[in-house]
Amino acid sequence: MKGFDIHHIEETDSTNLYLKRISRENELPQGYTVCVDYQLAGRGQKDNSWESERGLNLLFSTVLFPEKLEAGKQFILSQIISLAVKDVLDKQASGFCVKWPNDIYWENKKIAGILIENEIMGDYISRSVIGVGINLNQEIFRSDAPNPVSLKQITGKNYEIQPLLQRILTSLKDYFSSLNNHNSIKSIREKYYNSLFRKEGFYLYNDGSQNFMAEIACVEDSGLLVLRKETGETVKYAFKQIRFVL
Known about the structure:
The protein is an alpha+beta fold. It has 5 helices and 12 strands.
């Protein structure tokens, strides 16, 4: 698989929406990527907003066309993009982890968010649009987001956007290319689990009705988070059914 094509634009509503619009009129190649200086309506999971000052952060979306990836196994796409981002950040500083399902955290603060929108044809994923926002050089956050942090705040350094994007896409391409190998998928899932935020120990969670202490038992291949409560009871949660109390 050749390298992913990168196309830069100055401004759009959101890179995911932009990619989906142009894909209606053009047959996009594998890994077609758009990078933007500023998003007017950047979105996270479940339409959460994403704050980013113009030109200071890495904002991009890429489109993938998986080969024979069953819809029930689509969570592997979330795992590979999370790991691709974390792999690159790990080379800049220590302390990064993946907060289930696919936020990237440094200690108790969020440095990156990922939004994945899949199209299903029959029993398979026909197209995946993956949007990523990484706080690189922003130092002041004005929104009500509770816990943002940037790479510059962590290391005290300024970062060029394009080289980091290239490295992330190279890592993503490598992971994506390995998805037809059962042993590679097993390795990806293990690496994802070992990279999880609060992987070990009991922490406070909220299920919408109450706070409770629990530990992560596992993440199922479907993406469900399995928590083990202090009583020993295990409960499965889909995204937005459970909240980490920070």
